[in-house]
Amino acid sequence: MKHKKSNAVLDTVLVIIVLTVVGVVWFFSFWTGGIINTDLQADAELSEGHTEFNKITELPSNFDNLFVFVFVVLWVGALIASYNVDTHPVFFIITILLLLAVFFVSMVLGNTYEEVTTDADFTGHYLLYPKMNWIMTHLLLVAIIVGGSVTIALFAKPK
Hints:
Layout: H1 7-42, H2 50-54, H3 59-83, H4 92-117, H5 130-137, H6 139-155
Helix pairs in contact: 1-3, 1-4, 1-6, 3-5, 3-6, 4-6
């Protein structure tokens, strides 16, 4: 793995994309599950299965913690992968320039997530996921921290 140029950028992009996709999918799946649960509870003909499907209300806290776990695992994996890549210092400037583009995209994704989740149709639903909501609404800060630490792991190692 000699002289890979932009491992920090690719690792940061991977973390941001996975966080965004997982966050949006989980948010909409539990929002949809809540609607289905409300309809099932109101249907008198379906007496069985009410209590089992009602357990869906316990899942958001579990998935909120799982989201943080996925984030930490991706971050640590990116740090380890970046440390193991032999990179020439001349690519540091290129990495910083590419990271600026990644930071811009993460800012747009974070703002889009916040705009969608605070829409009137999803009133209060984002409050079920406080950790995921914080990470996603502060995605630019998260990207800067991840990108910075991965860049440090990539370039600040003894030769």
